[in-house]
């Protein structure tokens, strides 16, 4: 298994497209959810072929760790140590055999011809032999055979998540009972949510026009039944944008916190690509306030500029840790850079790329950004500390260590919504709320 060429399959066959997506993820650290749509467009693949390519590329990316364990138990070596083209063809083949209705003989035959295309004739016999052995047992039997004895390890294997992530979810949830539902939700494609920009589009009219339904958490959310949001007239003309309802709800919560005194200067300290800045900017426009939107990355600052065009928002390409004049803002959002463990359903491969060692650097940055936000607030002003991760080290522990502020109970900002704990903060969950697992702490200076 040496000398992998790393060639692309370059064809419009769904398996080739799925393979090229997996290869881009393995070789170039690419994001499957960016590569796949581009390949489908370039190769003009639509309809059932596009659906199959999507299922295979995203499914095999999500299940990668579990597939690798099964393949490794057949080959006797780490799957990641095989040549990349062989490893990815085996993942794709094993995924079809174990997780789809593709007949095993077809999955094996197409995998053998795929490996010939991307790695030459030498590994063809190996791929054929390995996949035949994979096909000798159904998925349940593999899971049973390879399952560790501890329950969290077993859930991690069964639901294709790294163990450290399942443990982090369990710690945040407080027990293990909901883990299967949460892990299942991570493995399902999320529905598309729109944000009807306040002052531009009426949410109920947008719901009626799109066949969607109003969301329960954000007064601006429409949950779409399916289809391509880019074709919706309100999205085309900028009256609405695509945004997870949880993201909308935490931004709207900051605007809804009661505040005494001046309420004119708002700040978004981590603004790119600008979804929350667009909602806050729309609310600011209605309330005679202005928003400063800070983003350290030049490319992402440009994205914010596009997203907030026409709103009373000034974009600053700057470092939030050192930005601005102390004591000058009334409301500040810190939507901190984080592991993104609350949005795994959106990024098929992300769970396998993230490492526990990522946490330490992120928590230092999160602490410094929150301290900067507090420095920038006037006395009595409020900060919303937000992450799209439920990891306790990135959420409660950061909020509770913040100095010079007291926690505001955030739960009344979500009237009629259950399962928001832990008091006084809000933790949303995909399996409870249908949103990304957004965390919100509201702190008053
Ligand atoms: C979770 S994202 C924000 C998402 C955004 N609020 C939205 O709703 O579209 C975090 C952002 O913080 C930016 N960032 C990272 N470090 C930063 C810093 N020191 N100062 C300002 N922005 C920073 C990242 O580039 C990234 O765009």
TrEMBL record:
What's its EC? 2.1.1.176
Catalytic center residues: 388 (nucleophile)
Q: What class of enzyme is it?
A: transferase
Tell me what organism the protein belongs to. Answer: Phytomonospora endophytica
Species classification: Bacteria, Bacillati, Actinomycetota, Actinomycetes, Micromonosporales
- Read off the Gene3D superfamilies from this record: NusB-like, Vaccinia Virus protein VP39
Supply the name of the protein.
Answer: 16S rRNA (Cytosine967-C5)-methyltransferase
Q: Which residues form the SAM-dependent MTase RsmB/NOP-type domain?
A: 168-445
Q: Which family does it belong to?
A: Belongs to the class I-like SAM-binding methyltransferase superfamily. RsmB/NOP family.
**What exactly does this protein do?**
May act as RNA methyltransferase.
Q: CDD domains from the xrefs?
A: AdoMet_MTases
Q: Does the keyword S-adenosyl-L-methionine apply?
A: yes
Binding positions for S-adenosyl-L-methionine per the UniProt entry:
270-276, 295, 319, 335
Q: Which SUPFAM superfamilies match?
A: NusB-like (SSF48013), S-adenosyl-L-methionine-dependent methyltransferases (SSF53335)
Keyword list, A-Z:
Methyltransferase, RNA-binding, S-adenosyl-L-methionine, Transferase
| InterPro entries reported in the protein's UniProt record | MeTrfase_RsmB-F_NOP2_cat (IPR049560), MeTrfase_RsmB-F_NOP2_dom (IPR001678), NusB-like_sf (IPR035926), NusB_RsmB_TIM44 (IPR006027), RCMT (IPR023267), SAM-dependent_MTases_sf (IPR029063)
UniProt-listed GO biological process terms:
regulation of DNA-templated transcription; RNA methylation
Q: Name one GO molecular function term.
A: RNA binding
């Amino acid at each position: 298994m040496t000398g992998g060429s790393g060639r692309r399959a370059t064809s419009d066959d769904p398996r080739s497209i799925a393979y090229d997506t997996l290869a881009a993820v393995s070789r170039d650290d690419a994001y499957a959810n960016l590569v796949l749509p581009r390949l489908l467009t370039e190769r003009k693949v639509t309809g059932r072929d596009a659906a199959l390519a999507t299922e295979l590329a995203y499914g095999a990316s999500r299940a990668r760790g579990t597939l690798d364990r099964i393949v490794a138990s057949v080959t006797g070596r780490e799957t990641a140590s095989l040549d990349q083209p062989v490893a990815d063809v085996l993942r794709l083949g094993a995924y079809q055999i174990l997780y789809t209705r593709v007949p095993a003989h077809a999955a094996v035959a197409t995998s053998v011809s795929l490996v010939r295309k991307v790695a030459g004739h030498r590994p063809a016999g190996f791929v054929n032999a390995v996949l035949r052995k994979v096909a000798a047992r159904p998925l349940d039997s593999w899971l049973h055979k390879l399952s560790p004895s501890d329950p969290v390890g077993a859930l991690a294997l069964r639901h294709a998540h790294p163990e450290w992530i399942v443990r982090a979810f369990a710690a945040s949830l407080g027990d293990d009972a909901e883990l299967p539902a949460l892990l299942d939700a991570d493995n399902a494609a999320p529905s598309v949510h729109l944000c009807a920009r306040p002052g531009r589009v009426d949410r109920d009219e947008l719901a009626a026009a799109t066949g969607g339904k109003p969301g329960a958490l954000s007064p601006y959310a429409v949950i779409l039944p399916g289809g391509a949001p880019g074709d919706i007239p309100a999205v085309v003309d900028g009256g609405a944008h695509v945004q997870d309802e949880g993201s909308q709800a935490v931004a709207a919560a900051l605007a809804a916190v009661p505040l005494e005194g001046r309420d004119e200067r708002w700040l978004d300290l981590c603004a790119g690509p600008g979804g929350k800045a667009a909602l806050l900017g729309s609310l600011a426009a209605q309330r005679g306030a202005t928003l400063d939107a800070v983003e350290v990355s030049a490319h992402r600052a440009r994205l914010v500029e596009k997203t907030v065009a026409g709103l009373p928002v000034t974009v600053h390409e700057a470092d939030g840790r050192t930005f601005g004049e102390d004591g000058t803002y009334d409301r500040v959002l810190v939507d901190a850079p984080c592991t993104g463990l609350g949005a795994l359903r959106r990024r098929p491969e992300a769970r396998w790329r993230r490492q526990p060692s990522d946490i330490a650097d992120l928590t230092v940055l999160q602490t410094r950004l929150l301290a900067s936000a507090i420095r920038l607030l006037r006395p009595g002003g409020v900060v919303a500390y937000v992450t799209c991760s439920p990891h306790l080290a990135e959420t409660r522990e950061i909020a509770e260590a913040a100095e010079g502020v007291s926690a505001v109970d955030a739960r009344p900002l979500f009237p009629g919504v259950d399962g928001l704990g832990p008091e006084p903060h809000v933790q949303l969950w995909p399996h409870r709320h249908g949103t990304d697992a957004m965390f919100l702490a509201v702190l008053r200076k």
